[in-house]
Design a protein that fits this description.
The protein is of the alpha/beta class and about 140 residues long. It has a domain at about 75-140: Beta Barrel (OB fold (Dihydrolipoamide Acetyltransferase, E2P)), CATH 2.40.50.140. Helices cover about 25% and strands about 30% of the residues. The protein has 2 helices and 6 strands. Strands 1-2-3-6-5 form a 5-stranded mixed β-barrel. It is rod-shaped and about 130 Å long. The protein starts with a helix and ends with a strand.
């Protein structure tokens, strides 16, 4: 059995050398990373500013919707319940009433028409601090 030991040892050493155990291998030089190529430049065309146009459209739509229900501070649509010289009251939808003040220069359409209780009117102007609508234009329907 003593004869076999050197053979087994020689075989084990041969296998270890063949498999690379016990030997050091130098690390190969890494391949450099490719240089990045710049993305193609995309030119975005300049569009004209549409913010003001969009705001005007939204304000018009909101004004028509809120004016019909009496929520627009600068507009009222309803039935005249009281009118005397420069004072008028308009009944709005949802059981609301709006005080309207006329002034020298208030335009009444159709021109020359007389405002009477029971008429349907559209009033445009500006709101006072107390909520009264100072009428610039009144259209009788």
């Amino acid at each position: 059995m003593e004869v076999m030991k050197p053979r087994v040892v020689a075989l084990a050493v041969a296998v270890l050398f063949a498999s690379g155990v016990g030997t050091s291998h130098a690390q190969s030089t890494p391949v450099p990373a490719p240089t990045p190529t710049p993305a193609p430049s995309i030119t975005i065309p300049n569009l004209p500013s549409t913010t003001q146009i969009v705001n005007d459209v939204l304000q018009t739509i909101a004004g028509q919707a809120t004016g019909a229900f009496g929520y627009n501070p600068n507009q009222a649509h309803g039935t005249v319940t009281f009118f005397k010289r420069f004072d008028m009251q308009v009944a709005l939808q949802l059981n609301k009433y709006r005080q309207v003040k006329l002034h020298q220069g208030t335009v009444i359409n159709p021109r020359g028409a007389t405002i009477r209780p029971g008429q349907t009117v559209d009033v445009w102007g500006h709101s006072d601090q107390d909520g009264t609508l100072e009428a610039d234009t009144i259209t009788i329907h």
